[in-house]
Amino acid sequence: MTAERPVTSAIVDAKSFLGMSRTSVDAWSFEVTERLMTPGKFLFGGCGLASGLVALEEASARPTIWATAQYLSYAPLGAQVTVKTDLAVVGNRVTQARATTYAEGREILTINAALGTGELSSPTPWVTMPDVPAPEDCPPRVMPKRFDSSIFNHLETRIALGRSFSEIDGTPGSPVSALWSRVPGHFDPSAATLAIFGDYVAGGVTQPLGYNTMGRSLDNTIRIASLVPTEWVLTEIHMHALAGGFAQGTAFMWSRTGTLLATASQSIAAKIWDPSEL
Question: What order do you get walking across the sheet with 156-161 strand by strand?
Fold first, then answer.
C-alpha cells in the first residue's frame, strides 16, 4: 500500500485561525468571531468549508482530494459551531467522508469529501498561471466601509486583475479577475486555507456586471492539485453566467511560482448593493 502523503503542518495554522478545538473523537467546536464572519455578521462560507476540512483531515489522517459544501443556514456572530465527522468508507487509498456542521441547534452546513493519495502524476502542466504582476507590485484591495469588522480585516489582498470597488461604475467588464491573498503569519497552503480563498468567487459577479454586488454562496467545491510552499496565493476567478439572480463561477488558485494549488467553483445568489451601504 502506498504511504500516505502527510497532512501539511499548515493545517495547524488553519485550525488556529478558525479557533477550533476537538471535543470528542468525531467532533470539533469553534465560535464565530469577527475574523470568521461576513459583513452580514454570520459565518463566512469559506471558513465553514475550511472547518470541515480541518476536522476531516484530522479524523482520516489523509489529505483532501475533493470536497463540496452545501450551505443550509447561517451561524451568527457569537454562535458556537459544532462540526461532526463521519468516515463513511475507508479504502486503501481513499476515504469517503462527510462533515455536518451545527449552530444553535440547526444544521447549517453539510460537507462531502474524498481524502487520500495515489501514485500517478503528470510533470506537464495542463493549465498555466496568468501573467500578472507580483503581489508587491499590485495595489491593495481597499474594501467598502460595510466590510469593516469582518474576515476581510484579517486577510491581506491585492488586485492582480480587475477593477477596485471605487472603479465599478456601471460599465460591464471582463468576467476574469484575480487576487493575490495571504493570511498574515501563514506561510504554507492547506486545503482549509485554500477553501477560504476559494470563496472569493462569490464576489466575482461585480467585475463583469459592472455593479457592486453581494453574493451568498449556495455551494462551495474545492479540488486540491498540489500543496507547495507559498506565502501568497493567486485566486484567478472566471465568472460564467448570471441568470434569475443566481451566478456561477470557478477559480484557479496558484502559488507564487506558478504551481496550480487547487480549483474552486460556486453557485451564488447575487444582488446589487444599495449605494448608501458602500
Answer: 21-24, 27-31, 80-90, 94-103, 106-116, 64-71, 213-224, 260-272, 246-255, 233-243, 176-182, 156-161
pLDDT, one tens digit per residue, over 25-47 is 999 999 999 999 998 899 999 99
Q: Do 219 and 276 meet the contact criterion of CB atoms below 8 Å apart?
A: no
User: Domains plus CATH for the chain?
Assistant: 10-116 (2.40.160.210), 135-277 (3.10.129.10)
Question: Strands, DSSP E only, in the chain?
Answer: 21-24, 27-31, 64-71, 80-90, 94-103, 106-116, 156-161, 176-182, 213-224, 233-243, 246-255, 260-272
DSSP state of 37: B
Residues 6+ positions from 168 with CB-CB distance below 8 Å: 206, 207, 210, 211, 212
Compute CA 123 distance to the chain's CA centroid, rounded to the nearest angstrom: 26
* Distance, CA of 113 to CA of 98 (rounded, Å): 6
pTM of the model as a whole:
0.91
User: What does the DSSP 8-state code read for residue 61?
Assistant: T
Q: Read off the pLDDT of residues 251-270 as tens digits, 9 standing for 90 and up.
A: 999 999 999 999 999 999 99
* Contact status, residue 20 vs residue 11, Cβ threshold 8 Å: no
Sign of CA dihedral 205, 73, 143, 273: positive
139 Cα distance to chain centroid: 22
Q: Is 130 exposed, middle or buried (0-12, 13-18, 19+ CB in 10 A)?
A: middle
Give 53's contacts (C-beta < 8 A, 6+ positions apart): 14, 64, 67, 111, 113, 190, 191, 192, 195, 222
